[in-house]
Amino acid sequence: MTGPGAADAAPASALARLLRRKLALAGLAIILVVVGGAVFAPWIAPFDPNDQMFDGLTLEGAPMPPGGKFLMGTDLLGRDLFSRLLFGARTSLVIGIAANGLALVIGTLVGITAGFFRGWIGGILMRFTDLMMAFPALLLAICLAAIFQPSLWIVAMVIALVNWVQTARVIFTETSSLATRDFIAAERTLGASTPRILFRHILPHLLPTIIVWGTLGISTTVLLEATLSFLGIGVRPPTPSWGNIIFENQTYFQSAPWLVFIPGTAIILLALAFNLVGDALRDVLDPTQRGRD
Amino acid sequence: MTLAEATMDAGAATSPQVPVLRVEELCVAARTEGGLKPLVQDLSFDLRKGETLAIAGESGSGKSITSLAIMGLLPQPAVRVTGGSIRFDGHDLTRLSEADLRAVRGDRIAMIFQEPMTSLNPVMTVGAQLAEAIRAHDPVSRTEARRRAVEALRAVRLSEPDRRMTQYPHELSGGMRQRVMIAMALALRPEVLIADEPTTALDVTVQREVLDLLRDLQRDLGTAIILITHDMGVVAEMADRVIVMRHGRQVETAATAELFVRPQADYTRALLAAVPRMGQGAPRMPVTTDPIARVEDVVVRYPLRGGVLGRVTQNVHAVEHVSFEIRKGETFALVGESGCGKSTIARALVGLAPHQGRIEIAGQAMEGLDPPALKAMRRRVQMVFQDPMAALNPRMRVGELIAEPLLIHGIGNAAQRRDRAADLMTRVGMEASQLDRYPHEFSGGQRQRICIARALALQPDLIIADESVSALDVSVQARVLELLKALQAEFGMSYLFISHDMAVVDNISDRVAVMYLGQIVEMGTHQQVFGDPRHPYTRRLIDAVPVPDPAHRRRPSPRLSAETPSPLHPPGREPPRVVLEDIGEGHLVGLPT
User: Fold this and answer.
1) Could you tell me which chain A residue has the CA closest to the CA of B463?
2) Contact by Cβ (8 Å): B317, B301
3) Residue A47 lies in a domain
4) Is B452 helix (H, G, I), strand (E, B) or coil?
5) How many CB pairs under 8 A join A and B?
6) Please, how many CA atoms are within 13 Å of residue B45, restricted to the half-sphere of its CB?
7) What is the pLDDT at residue B242?
8) What Å distances lie between residue B526 and B359, B461, B545, B575, B584, CA to CA?
9) What's the distance, Cα to Cα, between the start and end of chain B in Å?
10) Closest CA to B496 of B517, B473, B475, B515
């Protein structure tokens, strides 16, 4: 309930209201740190990420634990983990944001079109989506990656092409229930054009779902990239990515746990940060939630 | 179990004077961020054996919360009893444990709800649900429970009770479902029955039957009834005593006859004055201008597909050969019960339902128009929906919503549109300073005003009001109807007023068409249809309206428990067509078939 006094304050901009939330600020800070680290990696990184250093291993040939000269320790080949993480962030951000974003856009477009138009357009689109869902995503990705020359951007595209289906399904269901609501009927009687109804009236209501699926997708896609790399069709070694750092080192988890924990924590933190910002964004953009900050 | 023993004693000793239920200074509050918000304050009343006590009030008055408190069904811990007591049979219900409450609930205090579809489990047969309710309280065998269930269904006068036992809720009509709910509530012969808006979701003729049924059962069983309703007509017909509530407090309490004749509180007087009554519509000058909209032989059918091949197995004959015209500046009303096709006609008029036949707006046929011409035509016809919250996009500001029609049709620039929106806001009795608020910040009546402002934005020739005041409280309803009349006097547009409420239609319309199963059965001026109803269905509709006057004696109406005829027909078959005959001065009456 909003009393007359509650709305008297001049409506602050969405950004200002976003920045007033502590959790959203924390999320934004983490994202900025990761993006900054990726962009300025060559200047920040203390070592070359691919340099197999002689003093990066103990005398017995084991990786060095965190501390001392190597901030986060070294990996099995004596490479500095911190430097690899910084350079790996470049790959992972491309995958987690670009590939995942593209998947989200495809899924939303397919879902909204099929949900709004129904009929034969919707039928064809959704049967195709179901077909895609029925294929094991990994198999599909392997096939696609085998056809194209592996490179970072190809991997990103492959991931986008297998990851849009869940989004499309969810958006389809939501759109088809929204399309029968009275306010959409009211728009039609006003003579509103279809694009106007779709993008001005239906899309804003889908934002919460899109945001949740988007943030969930970040960790999934980062790990899917790692799986592909592990199978030899992803990013070519020695190029680091957060996913393949984990995969390369997982067998030595017991003796060198930091090699899995540190990149794993990085992925979780990034996904969490996007989730916090996404949640806050959803609340800020929803006028019926106003006043619950 | 002490409670059960106590029942026996109490049952033997109960005399009409001893209250069955005594509510003393009941307070219920909801926990909010700003501390406890009182929902019911210091409510006290006695309920005697065999009497009907009505708790009347508008939305937010706390009447439903009171019933939930008695049943122990408050959504705790958010809402809870903060003071007072509910005495039933020597126990304070507010202090009983959940297990003891369960023994009372259903068995000795039963409740029926407004919406019978959502109160029944859709995947259980009616028989199984009834038997389960009986066996939950009485340790009887399955066959015995079944026998009693059939008996209960017979008691509520459902046709073919044995067959009903094996049916699922969706196979029954709304009225039949509500009877099943009553059967379930009364199968255990409770001492108290709480009926929370039991007939609000039902058509008037069905409401009539359910109310008659409740009264008969009460006479036979001696159950005390607490009737919760917003409808003063229902109060007048059913209740012995009335409590009028507002904002959680009792405003007035009196015997029903007394309350209607000599209301003491100002609020009660205002409430009674706002109730639409039949026969109050002032005689109006016949409108003889040119027609603005003409509907000719319009048919709307929806195919139902079934089988492996998806062939059309049946057609829903929503609208069958309907013709009428609406003249400039008049209010034309379509009345009928749910499923009669009145809303489908509205949807056809705004192009939301595909139709056969011919619809003309201002002399131009709607059929075969190209998209730009259709868009231009939409400017002339605007619609106001039933539920204003659902009809407004909750994510847009009111100012944007009102200016949107102008934006869509490319009228004016941003500043001009905003000025126009501000102007429209003041026209519908609101303030221009509220333009930057969102729909959820307004009350139901204000939201409907916003919808009206939005419909006015394009200065249409015809506004379709589809049950536009049905969801509103009576006092709000009266003000919105006044607004509609005032706007018509100012701008001279026509209304197509669609409603199931005969009293409202009686008060606002110039001409009326009565619809039944997709066809018009009677049409004429307001005086012709309400003053001299000729078709038996029109008479039944008018007779069924509850009259807010306890002294009113109702003609005994035939009790119908047959199923209503269905608008479903196999392909190729058409329902018999009603032939309208002019019996003088344009009063058209369907010939009895």
Assistant:
1) A189
2) yes
3) no
4) helix
5) 69
6) 26
7) 93
8) 24, 21, 17, 28, 14
9) 62
10) B515
Whether A211 is covered by a domain: the verdict is yes
pLDDT at A288 over 80: no
User: For residue B282, what pLDDT is reported?
Assistant: 64
CA distances to A36, A140, A160, A228, A275 from A221, in Å: 21, 14, 9, 10, 15
Better-predicted residue by pLDDT, A4 or B481: B481
Q: Answer yes or no: is A90 within a domain.
A: yes
Chain A residues with CB inside 8 Å of B455's CB? Answer: none
Q: Is the pLDDT of residue A226 over 80?
A: no
Quick one: CA dihedral B497, B503, B506, B508, positive or negative?
Answer: negative
Residue A96 Cα, gap to closest chain B Cα (Å)? 30
How many C-beta atoms lie closer than 10 Å to residue B489's C-beta?
9
Whether A26 contacts chain B with CB within 8 A: no
Alpha-carbon dihedral angle through residues B143, B149, B154, B159, given to the nearest 10 degrees? -90
Interface contact flag, B383 A189, Cβ < 8 Å: yes
Query: Is the pLDDT at B63 greater than 60, yes or no?
Result: yes
Which residues of A are less than 8 Å from B390 in CB distance? 181-183
Among residues of chain B, what percentage have pLDDT more than 90?
Answer: 19
How much is the pLDDT for B17? 65
Residue B352: pLDDT band (50, 70, 90) is confident
Q: How far is A6 from chain B (nearest CA, A)?
A: 10
Q: Where are the beta strands (DSSP E) in B247-366?
A: 249-255, 291-306, 311-327, 331-335, 356-361, 364-365
State the pLDDT at residue A21: 83
Using DSSP's 3-state secondary structure scheme, residue A138 falls into: helix
Give the C-alpha separation, A158 to B385, whole Å.
47
User: Do B23 and B245 touch, CB atoms closer than 8 A?
Assistant: no
- Which strands sit side by side in the sheet containing B35-48, from one edge to the other? B35-48, B19-32, B79-88, B91-92
Question: What is this model's ipTM?
Answer: 0.74
Residue A142 CA to residue A232 CA, distance in Å, equals 9
How many domains does chain A divide into?
1
Is a pLDDT exceeding 50 seen at residue B154?
yes
Residues in A closer than 8 angstroms to B441, CB to CB, are: 2, 7
Over 80: is that where the pLDDT of A261 sits?
Answer: yes
Q: Is residue A58 part of a domain?
A: no
A186 part of contact set with chain B, CB < 8 Å: yes
pLDDT tens digits, one per residue of B533-584: 888 888 888 888 888 888 877 766 655 545 567 778 888 777 888 888 888 7
Mean pLDDT of B170-195: 85
- Tell me B529's DSSP state: I
What the block records as the tokens of B165 is 């036992």
- For every residue of A165-182, DSSP letters joined together read HHHHHHHHHHHHHHTTSH
**Largest alpha-carbon pair distance within chain B?**
79
Q: Could A204 and B385 be called an inter-chain contact, meaning their C-beta atoms sit closer than 8 Å?
A: no
Residue span of the structural domain in which A263 resides: 16-42+81-289
Q: What is the CATH number of the domain that holds A206?
A: 1.10.3720.10
At a CB cut-off of 8 Å and minimum separation 6, what does B182 contact?
Answer: B112, B156, B198, B210, B213, B214, B217
